[in-house]
Amino acid sequence: MTSPPIFFPRTLSDACEILADYDGQAKVVAGATALSLLMGQKLVDPEALVSLSRIADLDQITVTEGVVTLGALVKHADVDRSEVVREHARVLAQSFAVVGNPRIRAAATVGGVLAEADYASDPPAPVVLLDGWVTVVGPGGTREIAASDLFVGFYETSLEADEVISHLHVPVTDPAAYTSYLKYSSRSAEDRPCVGVAVLVHVGVDGSCADVRVSVGAAAEVPLRLREVEKEAVGHVLDDARIAHIAQAYADALDPIEDVRGSGWYRTEMTRNLISRALANARDTAPRATEAGEKE
Ligand SMILES: Cc1cc2nc3c(=O)[nH]c(=O)nc-3n(C[C@H](O)[C@H](O)[C@H](O)COP(=O)(O)OP(=O)(O)OC[C@H]3O[C@@H](n4cnc5c(N)ncnc54)[C@H](O)[C@@H]3O)c2cc1C
């Protein structure tokens, strides 16, 4: 078996041109943690590989005008270690910190985990929770795709074969909001998630919720967010009945995946359980705004 040729373009537009020349038969390679396995198992057989490693500045993390931006080549470990991400998008740091093991986190990239769109991944649910979006470069120019529109099905994104994710963006999290990511693995601590739940709760001056968001990952083909259910909770206190209502709504709406990590029934029960736990933690520990605008 011969290995496919590997190209090292110095710009994103050169990368896209090579991808276009191969008409869908070439693959981008970033950290190679997923691609090497897929090629080894002959699940993909690209005619060429296009490495992003020599393209400048794709490993930067910045915060400008209320938006945290991560280059596609930022490693998972660097997301976890970044003071900028920890301060302004903490739930993102939490989710990248629990991916696989240190060896995987030292190689796997932000662009890779999003483009791979493996349902059993940790970061996509928090990215959707934060209303993140990606910048994508293709032969025709640049476009932006909301994370909720990027993941469209089983290992499927809305990217064209000759498009490359250049950056991930997430709005800075309101410092008054509580966020958390709960990962549940059914086989080993280093395994991919069976279910992952990300929540954001902002408790207002009167103790009612000013913002409630829940995003469920790894349980279905794509992350699940029920914006109508979230909206219904705004203006209400997050009591046990409200939490049970939200958790039940997500369990009812879930179209669960069945695999070695859990049956559809099990994933549905774990989804209900994790949402209840995450929202109860939020209620019990979320900072409460005061009339003076300070946090308790
Ligand atoms: C042992 C093991 C354990 C793991 N455990 C977890 C876990 O617990 N949680 C979890 O979330 N994930 C887990 N993973 C998955 C890991 O996080 C992914 O393999 C990784 O995120 C892919 O990133 P990469 O940079 O290595 O991508 P690559 O392997 O280089 O590429 C993956 C895919 O994305 C495409 N691609 C890469 N970058 C771009 C880009 N910028 N634009 C367009 N397309 C691109 C490639 O063409 C390829 O199709 C695990 C993986 C392994 C091997």
Report on the architecture of this protein.
It is a single chain. By secondary structure, the protein is α+β, with helices and mostly antiparallel strands. The chain has twelve helices and 13 strands. α11 packs antiparallel against α12 (264-285). The chain folds into three domains: 6-51, Uridine Diphospho-n-acetylenolpyruvylglucosamine Reductase, domain 2; 61-171, Uridine Diphospho-n-acetylenolpyruvylglucosamine Reductase, domain 3; 178-285, Enolase-like, domain 1 (2-Layer Sandwich). The longest helix has 22 residues, at 264-285. It is globular, with a radius of gyration of 20 Å. Flavin-adenine dinucleotide is lined by residues 27-35, 37, 52, 72, 99-100, 104, 107-109, 111-113, 115-116, 121-123, 164-165, 192.
